[in-house]
Every structure is written in C-alpha cells, then in structure tokens.
Design goal:
The protein is rod-shaped. Strands 3, 6, 8, 9, 10, 12, 14 and 15 form an eight-stranded antiparallel beta sheet that branches. A three-stranded antiparallel beta sheet has the order 7-13-11, with no helix packed on it. The protein has a two-stranded antiparallel ribbon with strand order 1-2. By secondary structure, the chain is α+β, with helices and mostly antiparallel strands. Strand 1 (23-29) and strand 2 form a beta hairpin. Among the domains are: 41-232; 361-482, Glucose Permease (Domain IIA), CATH 2.70.70. The protein contains six helices and 15 strands. It has helices spanning 2-19, 40-137, 141-292, 296-299, 331-349, 473-479, and strands at residues 23-29, 32-38, 361-364, 367-370, 377-380, 383-386, 392-394, 399-406, 412-417, 422-427, 429-432, 439-440, 445-449, 460-466, 469-471.
Length: 484
C-alpha cells in the first residue's frame, strides 16, 4: 500500500512537472523575433490567478443572486406591511367614522336626555305644584305615585343607556389606543425595512460594481488569452517556418561544409603550389646571387634553423621548407618561404645586374689581355662597352654618387656606392649628369659616353668592387639570365 501511494505521488508529480514545464513564447513584430521564457512558477501563478479570479467571480455571482433573493423577500415583506398598513388605515378611518357616528348619537342622546330632563323638571314642577295643590285642594296620591314610577323607569333606562354608551366608548378608546400602538410598531418596522432596504441597495450597488469590474477584468483576461492564443498560433506557424528554414539551413550548412572541405583542399593545393613555386624562385635567386661571386651568407644570411647543402650543384636545402605530405603543410612554412623569397628579391633588386649602356657591345672583357697601347699582357679590372659617342650611361643599381670628376687614366669618372659594400665605376665619360651625394635609381642617366683619359675610342669602362675588391662584372650580367 505504501509503495502504491508513493507510485501515485510520483506519477502525479511527473504529470504536474510535465504540465507546468518551462515554455518559450516567440513573438514576431516588425520583422523582429522576441523570445519570452515562461518559467514553471510563472505558469503556476497565472493558473492560480485565473482560478482565484474565476472563484471570486463565481462567489460574487452567487452572493449577488442571494442578495437579490433576500431583497425580493424584503420587498415582498415591505409590500405586505404596506398592505397591512393601508388596511389598518382603512380600519382606523372606519373606526373614526364609527366614533364620529357614535359621538353624534351620544350628542343626540344627550340632547334627548336634556330635553327629557327639562320635560321631567317641568313635569316634576307641575307635579310638585299639583301635590301642593292637592295638598291644598285635595289631589289623589295614586296618580303621583304612578308618575314617579314612570319617571324612575325612564331614569333607569337612561342610566343603562349611559352605562352602555360609556362602556362602548371606553372599548373604542382602548381599541383606538391599540391601533395607535400597532400603527407605531408598523411605522417603526417600516422605517427599519427602509433602512435595511437602503443598506441592501448600497451593498447591492457595491456588488454590482464589483461584478461589473469582474466582468471587465474577465473580458480583459479573455482578450489577453485570445491575443496570446493568436500570438501562440502565429508563433507556432513561425516556428514551423523557422524549423523548415533551419532544415534548409542545415542542408545548406552541410553543402557549405562539403564545399568548404573542397575549397580547403583546393586552398591547400594552391598553398602547396605557391610554396613550391616560392621554393623554386628561392633556388633561382640564390643561384643568381651565387653566380655573381658574392658570398650568400654575407648578403642574404639564412635563419639559424636553415642548413646549407654541401657538395654537388649549389642548391640550398631548408629543412623547414621541405614539402609536406598530406595535411602537414602549414601556413608558417609558406610564410617562411615567402619571407626568404622577399629577402632574396630585395637583395637582388639592389645589385648591379644590368649593363651601363642600353645599346652597345663588349669590346674588352675582365681579366688578362694585351694592352691596346703597348701590346703587352696586362690585367683588365673591368669591362669596356662600345656604343655611339655621347650615348646615355645609366646606373646599374640604386645607390648614392660618391665621386664625380677626373681620375687620372680613367678620365672623367663617376663612382656610385651600393648596398652590401658594392661600388660601381664608370670611366672615359664625356659629360656628367649627376652630382656627389645624389641618390640614383637603376636606369637613371648618370653621364654621357665619351673618350676621355687613356682610351683608344668612345666607350665606357665599367668596374664593380665589393668591399674594395675587384669583381668580374660579366658574372653579374650573366646572372640576370635566370631572373624573372
């Protein structure tokens, strides 16, 4: 039995929790969706308020009907009292009329008695005179006795009538007194009933107002319930629409995820391709720098994590930039390669890798040659470019002009300092187009080709020095064949 009771209580508790579970109300207004959370205690309060309001309205209605019934009973009692009062008034008026009649009768009787008394007095007077006369003249005593007997009988009758009339008058007066007492009682009851009626009218008015207020509140609650029902229906419809949209969005998300995965694979493939091309460009630029004869470690040092290869063709090997398998390719790998490529590109862009004249040919290379003046073997520290007289001589790399003027056998000379300790010299010029301290860019005109100094004809003598050490310019010019 105890277990059954516990099971019932548990079941009831579960039902109550299910009925009064937390709910959400979704309201859509002006294209916006608002969510309202209704906790279980709020639902319990609303239900309790509704039940209390319904109970109060029911109690007020029943009390109102009961008071209406009591008022109708009181009204019937008042109407019966009024009827009794009117009947009493009728009876009083009848009694008054009867009293008036009796008074008239008494007055008539009194006048009759007075006339009889006067007649009797006259008769007595005549009798006494007759007696006197009889005494004097000798009248019979029998006639006098007869008249006295008649008078005595009449007096007796008159006394009886007077006593009867007096008793009747007394009875009437007592009855009138009773009627007056009853009338006062009825008037007091009528006043009490009127007061009770007024009090009940006030109470009825208050109850009527309360009932009207309750009706108004009930209508308001009904309107709210209808509005909430309409909103709930709209919310349910919108919920279904949102559910359909969510399903469509889920399908779209799945599609986008698959597309994203494909794009990720494509992106990874592109990153691999870009990384591979960057690595190839790095190898090319390093090869260019290597062909110039410059020390790559000095002008473009590798990070500490990179190790230069040894033996065979000069192709730097970078452990942090090796190809990755699968999904191991990281953006840091590409960033590292791009940084290295930018570093090498910037380095290459400031090296003298172009010819000082745009149209011309090399008449004398760097190295051992026979001197054109004495025919003996000598060391030539530059390259001679032959071009039309007064052709434009351009800067082969960005830098700052460090010398402009005559320099012995070089004739008119222009020296330009570049980055990484490089210096270029242009000799046998005709005229200068720059000044000392002027910044020049690659391709800027610095002078005109001439035949000054120790020269056999119009040409420009072009030298490259690195930290004061002569270098073969041809190696710089050949290195540009692989620059893209």
């Amino acid at each position: 039995m105890v277990e059954l009771g516990n099971l019932k209580r548990t079941k009831i508790t579960e039902i109550l929790k299910h009925v009064f579970r937390d709910r959400e109300v979704i309201v859509r207004s002006a294209g916006k969706i608002t969510y309202f959370s209704l906790k279980s205690w709020v639902l319990i309060v609303l239900l309790s308020t509704g039940v209390a309001t319904t109970g109060w309205v029911t109690y007020s209605s029943i009390d109102y009907l009961r008071l209406v019934s009591q008022i109708s009973d009181k009204n019937e009692a008042i109407w019966s009292a009024q009827n009794s009062y009117s009947q009493l008034l009728d009876q009083v008026s009848e009694y008054r009329q009867s009293i008036v009649g009796i008074t008239k009768d008494l007055k008539a009787t009194q006048s009759t008695l007075l006339s009889h008394f006067k007649k009797e007095e006259i008769g007595i007077t005549s009798i006494s005179e007759g007696i006197k006369k009889s005494a004097n003249g000798g009248l019979l005593p029998s006639e006098e006795n007869k008249k006295r007997e008649v008078l005595g009988q009449q007096f007796a009758l008159i006394g009886q009538e007077l006593r009867r009339m007096t008793g009747k008058n007394n009875a009437l007066e007592s009855h009138i007194g009773n009627l007056r007492g009853n009338l006062e009682t009825v008037e007091a009851e009528k006043a009490e009933m009127v007061a009770e009626r007024e009090a009940m009218g006030d109470q009825l008015w208050s109850l009527n107002n309360n009932l009207e207020n309750s009706h108004i509140k009930t209508e308001q609650l009904n309107k709210k319930v209808k509005a909430l029902s309409a909103s709930l229906r709209a919310v349910m419809v919108e919920k279904d629409q949102i559910k359909n949209k969510n399903e469509a969005l889920r399908a779209e998300v799945v599609k986008l995820e698959s597309t994203k995965e494909e794009q990720s694979l494509q992106h990874e493939a592109k990153l691999r391709d870009i990384s591979s091309r960057a690595l190839k460009n790095i190898h090319r630029l390093e090869a260019v720098l290597n062909r110039t004869g410059l020390n790559l470690k000095d002008i473009a040092p590798l990070p500490k994590s990179m190790i230069m290869g040894m033996g065979g063709p000069f192709i730097p090997y970078h452990p942090d930039m090796k190809h990755s398998d699968g999904n191991v390719l990281l953006e840091s790998e590409l960033e590292l390669r791009l940084n290295r490529f930018e570093k090498l590109r910037d380095t290459v862009s400031v090296l003298p890798l172009v010819a000082p004249v745009r149209r011309g040919y090399v008449s004398s290379h760097y190295g051992r040659r026979k001197d054109p003046f004495n025919g003996r073997w000598a060391m030539h520290r530059g390259i001679d470019f032959v071009a039309p007289y007064k052709s434009k001589v351009v800067a082969t790399a960005p830098g700052i002009v460090s010398y402009v003027g005559r320099r012995g056998r070089y004739g008119r000379t222009v020296d330009i300092l570049h980055q990484h300790g490089l210096m270029t010299r242009f000799a046998h010029l005709y005229r200068y187009r720059v000044k000392v301290g002027q910044k020049v860019k690659m391709g800027d005109t610095i002078a005109l080709l001439g035949n000054s100094g120790r020269s056999t004809g119009p040409h420009v003598h072009y030298e490259i020095r690195h930290n004061g050490k002569f270098m073969n310019p041809r190696r710089f010019l050949r290195a540009t064949r692989n620059v893209q």
